[in-house]
Amino acid sequence: MLFDYLLRLADNGLVLAQRLGEWVGRAPVLEEDIASTNVGLDLLGQARLWLAYACEIDTGDAPPVRTEDRLAYYRDAGEFRNLLLVEQPNGNYADTIARQYLFDQWHVLLLAALTASCDARIAAIAAKAVKEARYHVERSADWVIRLGDGSAESHARMQDAMDALWMYTGEMFAVDATERALVDAGIAADAQALQSPWIEAVRAVLSEATLAMPRDDWMQGVHARGGKQGRHTEHLSRLLAEMQILPRSYPDAIW
Amino acid sequence: MSDEWPLWEVFIRSQHGLAHKHVGSLHAPDAKMAVRNARDVYTRRNEGISIWVARSSDIHASSPGDRAALFEPSNDKVYRHPTFFPMPEEVKHI
Prior knowledge:
The complex is a heterodimer of chains A (255) and B (94). With 255 residues, chain A is mainly alpha-helical.
C-alpha cells in the first residue's frame, strides 16, 4: 500500500519531467527552454527520491530486482500511478503552462502537508521538495497571468487551455481506499483537504489573469478509476514508448 | 526582430564574493522576469546568493578608443600606490 502511494508521488514527477523535456531545444525562447527544463530536472530528482524509497518497501510478493531504473523503465502504462493531468500532451505553450500551474498549485500544497507525515522519510523528502515546488508555482502562476492578461490571442489560448485541462483536476482530490488507509495512519496527506485552498489559489491567479474559472463538469479519473489506479489516457503509452525505448532495447546500456 | 524582448545584463554575487560580478546577459520582458530567468540561466550550479539585473541600454561604457587618454596618464605616477612610500621601521602591522 505504501509502495503504491510512493509510486503515485514518484510517477507524477517522472512523467511531467518527461513532458517538459520534450520542449528541449524547442521552447519559444532560450530562457524558457532552460527554465522549463530546470523544473523538469527538479521533478525528476524528486521522483528519484520517491522511487528509491519505494525500492526499499517489502511488498511481500516474489522479490523482483528493484531499482529506480527498473521502476522507471520497465513498467508499462497500466502500472504507472501518475495523475492523468501530467501525461497530457504539451500542446502550445499556453497548454503546457496551464498544465504546469494546475499541477504546481496542487503539488506545493500536497508537499507542505506531507512534511507533517509520521513517516520520517516521506516528511524529509517532502521538506526538500517543497522548496523547489514553491518556486515552480510562483513561476507558472506568473506565466498564467502574463499570458491571460496579455494579448487577445494569448488570452484566448490560455482560457482554452484551462478549459480543456480542467476535467483532469478533480482526480487530484479524489481519495481512494489505498490513500484513505494511509491518511488514517498519518502517513499520507489528505488530498481532499487540499481542494478548497487549491480552488482559492487558482481563483485568485485566474482572476488576476483576467481568465474565467472553467465550468465544473464531468471530472476524469474520479471514483477510483483514474491514473492513480493505473487507468490512463492513450497519451501515456506514447510518452513511455519514447522514454523507455533505450533501456528496453539495450538493457545494459550505461552513460 | 523589433518585438524581441529587451536585453538585460546579469550580475551575480557568489557564495564567497563581496561584490556582484557580471556573468552575462539575457532577454526578458521586464525586470521581474529578468531576475527569474537569470536564476534559471546563470545559477544552476549553485553559483550565487544574490542577483542584480540592469537593462543593457542603461549601461554606459567608456570607449575603447579613449583608452590612452583615460588610463595612460596614471602609468607614470607611481607615488599614487601606497607601496611607493617607505614605512618607518617602528610602524607594525601594515
